[in-house]
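DNA-3-methyladenine glycosylase II: structure, please.
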Amino acid sequence: MELTPTQCQQARLARDTRYDGLFFTAVKTTGIYCRSICPAPAPKEVNVEYFPTAVAAAQAGYRPCLRCRPDSAPGSPAWLGKNATLNRALRLIDEGALAEQSLTQLADRLGITERYLRRLFSDEVGLSPKAYSLYRQCLLAKQLLHDSTMPITEIALACGFHSIRRFNDCFKQQFSLTPSQVRKQEGGRRDSGQAIEILLSYRPPYDWQGLHQFYASRLIPGLEWLDAQSYGRTFHYGTCKGRFTATHLAEKSAFRASIHLSNLTYLPRVIQNIRRCLDLDADTRLIESQLCQAMGTTSLIKAGLRLPGIWSPFEAGIRAILGQQVSVKAARNLVSQLVALNPENDEAFSYFPAPEQLCRLDLTQLGMPQRRRETLGHFAEYACGKRLDESEQLLALPGIGPWTVNYLRMRGLSDPDIYLSSDLGIKKAIAKLPQPIDDQLAAPWRSYLTLYLWSTLT
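Here you go.
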C-alpha cells in the first residue's frame, strides 16, 4: 500500500512507530533524510519530500540522520508484490550476493540475462544493482559502527569490502562522513570469541508472547534456546558455523541480536535471516486489516501477528516430513532424535544436519515408518544440488505432498500467502468460528491467517 504525502505528514508529525521504515523524510534545507520517528524538531512541510526507501533518498542526494539512524529502521516492503524476480534479487543482494559474485553470476542464478536484470532495477528501483548493493553494504557498516565494538577493518570485511581503502572511499561517497567519524567509541576492540551485537528494529505492535509460545512448543534443546525475553539457535552455512540470541526490547521496538560467527563474511546473510525468522519487517497494520476482511470481523483477538520462520528451507522441509500426520509434540521428538544423530554436535551445542550429512546418517534409529525414512532420504538427496523453492519438482518426490511443500514454503521461505486448508488444526479452528471465512480475502497474507487460526486452538 503506497502512502500519500498527507499520510506521511501525519505519521512524521505524530512520530508514529507503526510507519517506521515505510517511508523516509528528506529535509531540503539540511540535506538529511530521517525516519518517521526522528526525535529532532519537525521541519515545515514545504521543506520536506518523502521517499519509499532509504536508498531512494540517498540517490536523490540526501545523507542519513545521525540521530534517528535510518540504517537501523525496519525494512521497507516498497517493492514487494511488483515482481517476483526483483524481490529475489533484492533479497540475495541484501545477503551480500554482489559482494561475493559478479552481476553476470547473479543474473545466471536468477535465470535471467544481465541486461534484463539491469533494466529491472532501473525501472523499479531507480538505480543499478551494483549501486543498490554498495549502499546496502554501507548501511550495514554504519549500523555496525554505531552498535558494535568491532574494529573498522573487521566491519569492512563483514560487509563485503576487500580493502579498507575501498571501504573508506565508498562510505564517504555515500554518507559524506568517514567510518571513524561515525564510530561512537574510538579504539573499540573485539576479542575473537566475543559476540557481535546489533539492534534489529521492527514496526509495533509485535506479538512476542505468541511467537514465544509457537517456538516453545517446537523447541529442540541444544539446537535452540528460549527464555522469557529471548530466542536463539545454532546455524551453519557450508563451513561457517554460528549461533545467535535475539533479546526482545519492547520499549525500543527492537531485538538486540548477539551473534557468534566463525566467518565474518557471512554476517549480512545471517542478519537478514534473523530478521526473516523473527518476521521483523512485516507491516502488521496492513496484514491484520486483510485478515479482518477474510474473517468478517472488525478486530482480531491478538495484535502484532508475526510468522515464525525456520532457519533454512531444508530444515523446514525435514520438519514438515517428520510432522506428517503426527502431533506437534511427536514431531518435535522426532526432530530432536534426528538432530542428536549429527556427529558435528559438541558438548555445548547441537546443529541441524546439512543435506549431505543427513544422507550419511543411520535413520533406522528414528521411530517412524520405513517409507517416511525413505522420504527423508529422497528429500535430502534432492536438496544436495537443487533449489527448494520449486514446488512442482518437490511434489514429484515420493512421499512429498501439498501440505509438506506448503509448510516448507511458509516457514522455510517465509512465503506470506500459504493457506493450509487441509491441516487438521486449521479445520478444528474453523469449526469453532461463529461464521465461515473467505481465505481469498486474506491474500496475499494467508500465511498469517493460517498462523492466526492455529493460535486460536491454544
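Notes: The beta strands are 24-27, 32-34, 48-51, 63-64, 196-201, 224-227, 230-237, 240-249, 254-261.
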